[in-house]
Design a protein that fits this description.
The complex is a heterotrimer of chains A (195), B (632) and C (108). Chain A has 195 residues and is mainly alpha-helical. Chain A has 8 helices and no strands. Chain B is globular and about 120 Å long. The chains are: A mainly alpha (195), B mainly alpha (632), C mainly alpha (108).
Chain lengths: 195, 632, 108
C-alpha cells in the first residue's frame, strides 16, 4: 500500500517535471526540470525493485549526461534565444490536440486490457539464492544479451568519435563554415517564419 | 564488255563521293577536274560498249550481285546493255561530259562550286543506273535518284525562295507520277512474278497476261513517264525548274532526265504494244502537250522559260512518236533533241553569262555582233529545233510526222504540224529578240557584255556540230542508221503491232517539203513581227488581250492546281494540325505535364524543409495507425 | 516461490499510464518547441517513458531482460546526447541560431 502511494506521488512529480521541461523558456530551467524528472524516475525504479538501474539513472543519466548538457549550454551562451518565439505557432495546437487524442486512445486501450501473470515480482528468496539483484542483472546481461551489449559499446565508441569530428575545428577555418555561406546566415534576431 | 560495264556508273559515283566529302575544305575551286575526268571515262567506256553491242542479237546482262531476295521476290543488281541502253549511255555521258566542261566556265567562282559538281556527278551516276538497269526496281531506283538530284540542283541557289520553291514543286509533282509508276512496278511483279525486263517481255510477248492487266500496267507506267517527262497535266514543274543553274537546265531538264519517261516507254515497248488503246492515250497526250506547251512558249519573256516550254513540247513529239509505235524514231528525236536543246540552253546560258545574269528577253536585243560565237551556235540550235533542212531537228521531227501520217492518225499529224509552225515561230522570236534589233540593255549591263570563255564556247561548238550533222544518223526509211541499230530491241514490239519496214514513197517527200515550208513560214512570221515591224507584237497582243492573258498565264494550270489540290491538302493539313495535332496530341502532352505540375505544386507545400513538420506527419501516422488497428 | 497478487503491490497498468503521459509530453515537446536543446530534452523524456515501461514489465514477468534493455537505452541515450550536442555546437557556430525551423536549406 505504501508502495502504491509512493508510486503515485513520484508519478505526479515525474509528470510535473516533464511538463516543466517542455514548457520552460529558459533552457537551464528546462534542464533542471529534466534532472528533477530523472530523479523521480529513479525513485520509481527503486520502487520497482530495479535498484541497480536506479543508481545508474542517477549517476550516469542525471549526473554525467546532464552535466554534458549543462556544459554545452554554458559553453554556447544561449540566453539570446529566450526573447524569441519558443514554439511553432500553428503546429503547437495540432500537436497538442493530437497528443490528447492519442492519450485518450492509449487510456482506452489500457482500460480494456487485463494483465495477468504467473509471477508477481522478484521474491527475496529467489534473489538471495541467486546472490543479489546486481548479480542476477549481470548474469542476464552477459549471458543473454552479450551481443547487444557489445554492439551498444561499439555505438558509444562511434558516437564519441563522431562527436569529436563534428565539433573539431579544421586548420584554416571550419569545414562547415566553408560549406555554409556566412552571408546567408540569418542574424539571430531574425523574425521567424510563420509556421 | 561484262568486265567494265559497272565502271560506267561507278566513276561518277566515286567523283560524287570524293567531291562531296573533300570539296568544301580541300578541293574547292578545283572541283571540276575529278567529275570531268570521271565523265570522260564513262563516255569512253560507253563508246566501247556501243561498238561492241553493234549488231548483237542478244543484250548483254551482267548481274553484279543480288540486291535482295524475299521469298520469290528476287532483285539482282544487274546491268543490261543492248542497243537502246547503249544509245542512251552515249547521250547521257556525251552530253553530260560536254556540259560538265561548260560548267567550269559558267559556274566559275560560285560559292557552291564543289556542291554543284558533286550533285551533277550524283545525277550522272543515277541516270546511268537508270539506263543500265536490267529490271524495273533498279530502274525505279535510278528514276527516284535522278528526281532527287533534280531537286538538289533546282534548289541549288537555296537562298533564293523561288529556287527552293521550284525544287519542292518539281519533287512533289514528280511524286504524283512516281506514285503511279511505283504502283505499275508492283503490278508488273504481281502479274509476271518477276521484274526482270527480259522475262517480263518474254511473258508479255507470249500473250500470257490478260489485256486488261496490261492496260493497267502500261497506264500506271505512263503516269510515271508523264511526271518525269513533264507531259500535260504534270508539266507544271519543268518551267519552274529553270530556277536552277543553266547547265542543270541543259543536262537534267532538257537533254537527259526528262527523257527518262520516253526511254522507259520505249524500253517497255512490248508491254505498250500489247495493251490496246494505251498507245493512243500516249500519242494523244504527247500531241496535246506538244501544241499546248508550244502555245505557251510564244508569250514567255524569260529566255530559259521559252526553252523549257519548248522542251515540254518536244517531249510531246517523242510521245507522239511512241504513240504510233515509232519507237526508234522517238529515241532518234530524243538524241537529236538532247543535242540541240543542250546547245540552246548552253547558248542561252552564255547569253545570260554575258549579260551578268539577265534572263528577260525584253532587256536584250542587238547582241549579234557583240557575242558572235554564241550567236552562231545558238542559231544552229534554233534551226535544228525549228526543223529546217538539213539540221538534226528536221530529220527527227519529220520522221515523227511521217510515222504519224503512215499510221493514219491524220489529226495528230495536223496538230503536230501546227505545233511545228509555232515551234519555229517562238524559237526565232527568241533569237530575234535576243540578237537583233536595238539594244534594250540596262545601263549597267551594257558595259559588262563580253563573250564567254573558251571552256564555254568549245562545248557550244561541239554541240552545234552535233545539232547540224546529227540528223544524218537517222535518215528516213531504209537509210536510217539509228533505226537499224535499234532494230533488235524493238523488233518484238513491232511484230506485235504488225509494223514493217517501209520504203520511201512520193508522199514522204511531199510531207518533208510541207513541214519545211511550215517551219520557214514560222521563222518568216517571227522575223516580220520582231525585226521588221517591232510595233506589231504589242498591237496583236492588245487586240487579242484575253487570249494573250490566258496564254501568258500558262492557261492558269498552276492556279487551278493551287485552287484545288494544293488548297485541299493545305486546308486539310491545317485542320488536322489545329484540331488533332494541337488539340489532341499536344493537349494530351501538355495536359499530362500540367497535371504533374499542379500535383508538384501541391506536393511542394508539404516540403517545407522543417524537420518538425515531417515529424508531425509521423505523429499523425501514429495516430491513424493506432486508431485503425485498435478501433477498427 | 508462490505467485500471489499480494506480492505485486503496484499494478502494471499504472506504469503504462505514467509512461504514456510522459511519452506524449516528450512528443509534444519535440513537435512544438523550436529550440534544439528543448527538443533533445524531450527526446530524453520519451526514452525515460520507455524505460519506465521496461522496468515495470520486467518486474511483472520476473524477467531481468527488461532491466538489460534499460541499460541499452541509456547507452543509446548517451550516444545520442553526445552526437546531438556536437551537431548543436556545429550548427550554432555556422548559423548563430538553434531554432530548428530556420534550418530549411532543403526546402522544396
Amino acid at each position: 500500500m505504501v508502495e502504491k502511494i509512493l508510486f503515485v506521488i513520484f508519478a505526479v512529480l515525474t509528470i510535473i517535471g516533464g511538463l516543466g521541461t517542455v514548457t520552460r523558456r529558459n533552457i537551464v530551467h528546462g534542464l533542471l526540470f529534466l534532472v528533477f524528472t530523472f530523479l523521480n524516475v529513479a525513485a520509481i525504479f527503486f520502487l520497482s525493485q530495479a535498484y541497480f538501474l536506479a543508481v545508474v539513472q542517477i549517476l550516469v543519466y542525471a549526473g554525467a549526461i546532464m552535466v554534458l548538457f549543462v556544459f554545452v549550454i554554458m559553453f554556447l551562451n544561449l540566453r539570446t534565444f529566450q526573447q524569441q518565439e519558443q514554439t511553432h505557432r500553428r503546429q503547437r495546437w495540432v500537436a497538442l490536440g493530437l497528443a490528447v487524442l492519442v492519450l485518450v486512445e492509449f487510456v482506452a486501450i489500457f482500460a480494456g486490457m487485463t494483465f495477468t501473470s504467473a509471477r508477481a515480482g522478484f521474491s527475496p528468496d529467489m534473489v538471495e539464492q541467486s546472490g543479489g539483484f546486481t548479480r542476477v542483472f549481470a548474469w542476464s546481461l552477459f549471458e543473454r544479451t552479450l551481443l547487444p551489449l557489445e554492439v551498444a559499446s561499439a555505438v558509444l565508441l562511434v558516437a564519441m568519435v563522431g562527436a569529436i569530428l563534428l565539433v573539431k575545428k579544421e586548420k584554416g577555418g571550419d569545414v562547415a563554415t566553408q560549406a555554409w555561406d556566412p552571408e546567408e546566415a540569418p542574424p539571430a534576431n531574425v523574425r521567424d517564419e510563420e509556421v | 564488255m561484262e568486265g567494265y560495264i559497272w565502271l560506267i556508273p561507278v566513276l561518277p559515283l566515286a567523283a560524287f563521293v570524293i567531291t562531296l566529302l573533300f570539296g568544301k575544305w580541300w578541293i574547292k575551286e578545283h572541283a571540276h577536274w575529278l567529275p570531268i575526268l570521271a565523265m570522260a571515262g564513262s563516255f569512253g567506256l560507253s563508246l566501247a560498249a556501243f561498238v561492241q553491242i553493234r549488231g548483237a542479237e542478244e543484250p548483254v546482262v551482267v548481274e553484279l550481285w543480288r540486291w535482295f531476295s524475299v521469298g520469290s521476290f528476287q532483285v539482282p543488281l544487274g546491268m543490261q546493255v543492248d542497243q537502246l541502253s547503249s544509245v542512251m549511255l552515249l547521250v547521257v555521258s556525251g552530253v553530260g561530259l560536254v556540259i560538265f566542261i561548260y560548267s567550269k566556265g559558267y559556274m566559275h567562282g560560285d560559292t557552291g562550286y564543289y556542291r554543284f559538281y558533286a550533285y551533277m556527278s550524283l545525277f550522272a551516276f543515277s541516270m546511268l543506273m537508270l539506263v543500265l538497269a536490267n529490271n524495273y526496281l533498279l530502274l525505279y531506283f535510278g528514276w527516284e535518284a535522278v528526281g532527287l538530284c533534280s531537286y538538289y540542283l533546282i534548289g541549288y541557289y537555296y537562298h533564293k525562295p523561288e529556287a527552293a520553291a521550284a525544287g519542292k514543286k518539281a519533287f512533289i509533282v514528280n511524286r504524283v507520277g512516281d506514285f503511279g509508276f511505283g504502283l505499275g512496278v508492283m503490278l508488273v511483279f504481281v502479274t509476271f512474278g518477276t521484274l526482270d525486263y527480259l522475262k517480263v517481255f518474254e511473258l508479255a510477248e507470249a500473250g500470257a497476261v490478260a489485256e486488261t492487266t496490261l492496260i493497267g500496267i502500261t497506264l500506271l507506267l505512263f503516269m510515271g513517264a508523264m511526271g518525269k517527262s513533264a507531259q500535260f497535266p504534270l508539266h507544271v514543274w519543268l518551267p519552274d525548274a529553270m530556277e536552277g543553274p543553266t547547265p542543270v537546265s541543259a543536262l537534267i531538264h532538257a537533254a537527259t532526265m526528262v527523257t527518262a519517261g520516253v526511254y522507259m516507254v520505249a524500253r517497255s515497248a512490248v508491254l505498250f504494244a500489247s495493251a490496246p488503246g494505251v498507245l493512243l492515250v500516249v500519242g494523244g497526250i504527247g500531241t496535246f502537250t506538244a501544241i499546248f506547251a508550244a502555245v505557251i512558249g510564244i508569250c514567255q519573256k524569260d529566255i530559259k522559260r521559252v526553252l523549257a516550254y519548248s522542251t515540254v513540247s518536244q517531249l510531246g513529239y517523242m510521245f507522239m512518236a511512241l504513240g504510233v509505235g515509232a519507237w526508234a524514231i522517238a529515241i532518234f528525236h530524243l538524241v537529236t533533241h538532247a543535242f540541240f536543246k543542250a546547245l540552246l540552253f548552253l547558248g542561252a546560258g552564255s547569253v545570260i553569262h554575258a549579260l551578268g545574269g539577265e534572263q528577260n528577253m525584253d532587256k536584250m536585243g542587238g547582241l549579234r555582233k557583240r557575242i558572235p560565237a554564241t550567236y552562231y551556235t545558238l542559231v544552229a540550235g534554233a534551226l535544228a529545233l525549228s526543223g529546217i533542212f538539213p539540221f538534226a531537228g528536221f530529220w527527227s521531227k519529220d520522221d515523227i510526222l511521217g510515222a504519224v501520217w503512215r499510221d493514219g492518225k491524220y489529226l495528230l499529224w495536223a496538230v503536230g504540224l501546227v505545233a511545228a509552225f509555232i515551234t519555229a515561230f517562238y524559237t526565232f522570236r527568241m533569237i530575234f529578240l535576243t540578237f537583233f534589233g536595238k539594244s534594250r540593255l540596262d545601263e549597267d549591263t551594257e558595259h559588262h557584255v563580253h563573250e564567254s570563255p573558251w571552256s564555254m564556247l568549245v562545248p557550244l561548238i561541239v554541240l552545234a556540230v552535233a545539232s547540224t550533222l546529227g540528223g544524218f544518223l537517222g535518215l528516213p526509211g531504209k537509210l536510217g542508221l539509228i533505226q537499224h541499230f535499234l532494230e533488235p530491241v524493238f523488233a518484238p514490239a513491232d511484230h506485235i503491232l504488225g509494223l514493217h519496214e517501209y520504203s520511201l514513197a512520193a508522199s514522204d517527200y511531199v510531207l518533208m517539203v510541207v513541214s519545211v515550208i511550215v517551219a520557214m513560214l514560222g521563222i518568216v512570221l517571227a522575223w516580220y513581227m520582231y525585226v521588221r515591224r517591232v510595233d506589231l507584237p504589242l498591237k496583236v497582243g492588245a487586240r487579242l488581250q484575253p487570249a494573250y492573258r490566258v496564254v501568258y498565264n500558262k492557261f492558269y494550270v498552276d492556279e487551278f492546281y493551287a485552287a484545288t489540290f494544293v488548297r485541299v491538302a493545305v486546308d486539310g493539313s491545317t485542320w488536322v494540325w489545329h484540331r488533332f495535332d494541337e488539340a489532341v496530341i499536344d493537349g494530351a502532352a501538355h495536359g499530362l505535364a500540367r497535371l504533374w505540375q499542379v500535383l508538384g505544386h501541391a506536393g511542394r507545400r508539404l516540403q517545407t524543409g522543417k524537420v518538425q513538420h515531417y515529424l508531425l506527419g509521423i505523429f499523425v501516422g501514429l495516430f491513424v495507425i493506432v486508431t485503425v488497428v485498435v478501433f477498427r | 516461490m508462490e505467485p500471489t497478487s499480494a506480492t505485486m503491490p503496484i499494478p502494471v497498468d499504472w506504469y503504462l499510464y505514467l509512461s504514456a503521459v510522459l511519452f506524449l509530453i516528450g512528443a509534444v515537446g519535440v513537435l512544438t518547441r523550436r529550440n534544439l536543446f528543448i527538443i533533445l530534452f524531450s527526446i530524453e523524456l520519451m526514452m525515460n517513458a520507455v524505460n519506465l515501461n521496461l522496468v515495470g514489465f520486467s518486474r511483472f514477468h520476473e524477467d531481468m531482460l527488461g532491466h538489460n534493455f534499460v541499460l541499452f537505452t541509456m547507452a543509446i541515450a548517451a550516444a545520442e546526447a553526445a552526437v546531438g550536442l556536437a551537431i548543436a555546437v556545429a550548427l550554432f557556430r555556422n548559423r548563430q541560431t538553434l531554432m530548428v525551423d530556420l534550418f530549411t536549406r532543403m526546402k522544396g
